[in-house]
Amino acid sequence: MSASPINWQKSSFSGGGGENCVELAQEGGKIKMRESEDPSVILTTSRENLAAFVAGVKAGEFDHLLS
């Protein structure tokens, strides 16, 4: 029996070529994240940790990293 493939999702704000995006997927109650430039490296976190990070992004806490 083979494992189900992971269904990766990228932001609609990513570039059209798909080579400069961060992708997310859900597997077994955890959230997985990878970068399209090196898809073999996968970060796994909880929904709660991702929610806290997204809240920080929305609040502008990481804006200084983009300039």
Instruction: Give the H and E element order.
Output: EEEEH
* Rg from alpha-carbon coordinates: 14 Å
Distance between the termini: 48 Å
Tell the overall outline.
Answer: globular
- Percent of residues in helical segments? 10-25%
The low-pLDDT segments are: none
How many helices?
Answer: 1
State mean pLDDT (0 to 100 scale). Answer: 90
What kind of sheet is the major sheet? 4 strands, antiparallel
Instruction: Supply the number of structural domains.
Output: 1
Tally the beta strands: 4
Widest beta sheet: strand line-up: 1-2-3-4
- How big a fraction of the residues is strand? 25-35%
Class by alpha and beta content: alpha+beta
What does this protein look like?
The protein is α+β, with helices and mostly antiparallel strands. It has one domain. It is 18% helix and 33% strand. Strands 1-2-3-4 form a 4-stranded antiparallel sheet. It is globular, with a radius of gyration of 14 Å. The termini are far apart.
List the helices and strands and how they pair.
Blueprint: E1 9-10, E2 22-27, E3 30-35, E4 38-45, H1 47-58
Antiparallel strand pairs: 1-2, 2-3, 3-4
